[in-house]
Amino acid sequence: MSDSEEHHFESKADAGASKTYPQQAGTIRKNGYIVIKNRPCKVVEVSTSKTGKHGHAKCHFVAIDIFTGKKLEDIVPSSHNCDVPHVNRTEYQLIDISEDGFVSLLTENGNTKDDLRLPTDDSLLSQIKDGFGEGKDLVVTVMSAMGEEQICALKDIGPK
């Protein structure tokens, strides 16, 4: 093979980091994260069966979808790899709430982020609307995983 030959590699993946990473099923613990049925979930219960006559201990995961709150279950041999989502939490200052349910957030570099909806959780939703109506400075925590984002928490940093 000579140096003059050129190699072309076709990339089917998008640029940037992967949405998940592999982790051995036996090492995933309660309060960790796992992907079940292509959804990012928080593990609420893990039980491991003993090795059977075919040689694999199995892990039974009960997990809750971090965006929809749905309960999902999966059984995986403990020596196999599972997908684990990259979960990030970012804090933004709340600037405005539009009539159609979208929020305007201030990012760290001074830009605005206008593509997030108000949360579906009723208590969090009312806390945000009430605090904003009272003119308080509010900071929302946005959880992002696997290309999805949702407001998951709220902090009051005082009156404006």
Question: Key features?
Answer:
4-stranded antiparallel sheet, 51% strand, 1 helix, SH3 type barrels, 160 residues, OB fold (Dihydrolipoamide Acetyltransferase, E2P), mainly beta, 5-stranded antiparallel sheet, 11 strands
Total DSSP helices: 1
User: Under CATH, the topology of the largest domain is which?
Assistant: OB fold (Dihydrolipoamide Acetyltransferase, E2P)
**Radius of gyration, CA atoms, in whole angstroms:** 21 Å
Q: Rough shape?
A: elongated
Strand content: over 45%
The strands making up the biggest β-sheet line up spatially as: 9-8-7-10-11
Q: What are the segments in which pLDDT stays under 50 over at least 5 consecutive residues? A: 9-16
Tell me the distance between the termini. 69 Å
List the domain count as a whole number: 2
State the CATH class of the largest domain: Mainly Beta
The CATH architecture term of the largest domain is Beta Barrel
What is the CATH superfamily label of the largest domain?
Nucleic acid-binding proteins
Work out the number of β strands: 11
- How much helical structure, as a percent, in the residues? under 10%
Taken in chain order, the helices and strands follow as EEEEEEEEEHEE
Organism: Oryza brachyantha (malo sina)
Biased composition (Basic and acidic residues): 1-13
InterPro entries: IF5A-like, IF5A-like_N, IF5A_C, NA-bd_OB-fold, Rib_uL2_dom2, Trans_elong_IF5A_hypusine_site, Translation_prot_SH3-like_sf
Family: Belongs to the eIF-5A family.
